[in-house]
Design goal:
Residues 15-61 form the SpoVT-AbrB domain. The chain is 59% helix and 11% strand. It has 345 residues and is of the alpha+beta class. Strand 7 and strand 8 form a beta hairpin.
Length: 345
């Protein structure tokens, strides 16, 4: 067990010259981290009046290769879960091996499909009968967290609008095309979750992402999961089209489109409030979400029994859930900006 001195010590600050202060660092810590005399260090001043000290970016060491050993008895879903867990934990190279026996063809297909469908910036660089090696090529400077978040939001917003359009046209093929877009949203979700996990473990990456403190990673994890869920509901709307017995009536289409537009506007504005750190806009969205819930309840109450009534109810619920998940995003905005709207005594 580590002693308190292994993780926390108090040192006195001393002035050196007219405008510089110095503080000594424990030799044991320096040796364990691998810092040498003359190495560059980076100091970050955090918003919570703390400072973070970490080695220069050039000294950052990539994580080692992760090796996953599988057998022919393993379930394909179990293998996929292990690969995703390693990907999220920031490893640059993932090797799947099956010692002494061949990897089953169905396992090989599942792994390759997972890489293609769910993992941004990855390639299979080696593959033989007993091993598959996955290389993660994408680095943060090439696809920043902010850019990935914007793309994920735009894809999800477009998914919802196109799902409603396909529903109004009773176009099954269009709906299936929209539903497939969910895979792309999931890819961005995994990439950003991986980035957040790495940022918690690496102060330099946290700084690159322009996050003020590690707790911000928890807030953004909530945002990402809510965007992913909104995309899931858009995909559900698109998938429900094939179960319609008849085209929807014009009056019903108009009601669904109106509620949908209100919900997606709340979603778009919740992301805008997040990027602008605007608590006033966030409060306005909260009121809008309440109105959407009331409208959805009224529409539900007014639905007459028909061949399509069950599908219509499911669609209305999908739209309401979109608004409610947007409400979760604005809660993050308010939590992050509360210090700017209160006074401390």
């Amino acid at each position: 067990m580590q002693s308190i001195e292994d993780t926390k010590q108090t040192r006195r600050i001393q002035i050196s010259g007219g405008s510089t202060y110095t503080i000594s660092l424990p030799k044991k810590w320096i040796d364990e981290i691998g810092i040498k005399n003359g190495d560059n260090m980076t100091i970050v001043k955090n918003a919570n009046h703390s400072m973070t000290l970490f080695p220069g970016l050039d000294t950052e060491k990539p994580r080692r290769r992760a090796v996953i050993t599988i057998s022919q008895k393993d379930a394909g879903e179990s293998i996929q879960r292990k690969i995703i867990a390693v990907y999220l934990n920031g490893y640059k190279t993932i090797q799947i091996i099956s010692k002494g026996v061949k990897i089953l063809p169905e396992h090989s297909r599942l792994i390759k499909d997972l890489v293609r469908r769910s993992m941004i910036g990855t390639e299979i660089v080696e593959s033989d009968s007993e091993s598959i090696t996955i290389q993660i090529l994408t680095r943060l400077p090439e696809l920043t967290f902010d850019v990935a978040l914007k793309r994920m939001h735009l894809m999800t917003s477009n998914m919802h609008r196109e799902a409603i359009e396909a529903l109004s046209k009773n176009d099954i093929a269009y709906g299936e095309e929209v539903a497939r877009m969910d895979d792309e949203v999931d890819r961005f979700s995994l990439y950003m979750m991986r980035t957040l996990i790495m940022a918690i473990q690496n102060a330099s990456m946290l700084y690159d992402m322009e996050l003020e403190q590690p707790s911000d990673c928890l807030n953004y994890r909530t945002v990402i999961s809510r965007i992913e869920r909104i995309a899931d509901h858009a995909a559900l709307i698109a998938k429900r089209i094939k179960f319609l017995k008849d085209p929807l009536e014009p009056k019903t289409i108009k009601e669904i489109q109106g509620l949908s537009e209100d919900a997606i506007n709340c979603f778009d504005n919740s992301i805008l409030a997040l990027t602008k750190k605007d608590p006033i806009l966030a409060e306005k969205i909260a009121s809008g979400v309440e109105e959407i819930v009331k409208k959805e309840e009224a529409l539900m109450y007014g639905i007459k029994e028909s061949k399509n009534s069950t599908i219509i109810k499911f669609v209305l619920e999908d739209i309401r859930r979109t608004a409610e998940y947007s409400s979760d995003i604005i809660e993050v905005v308010i939590n992050k900006t509360i210090s700017s709207i209160i006074s401390e005594k």
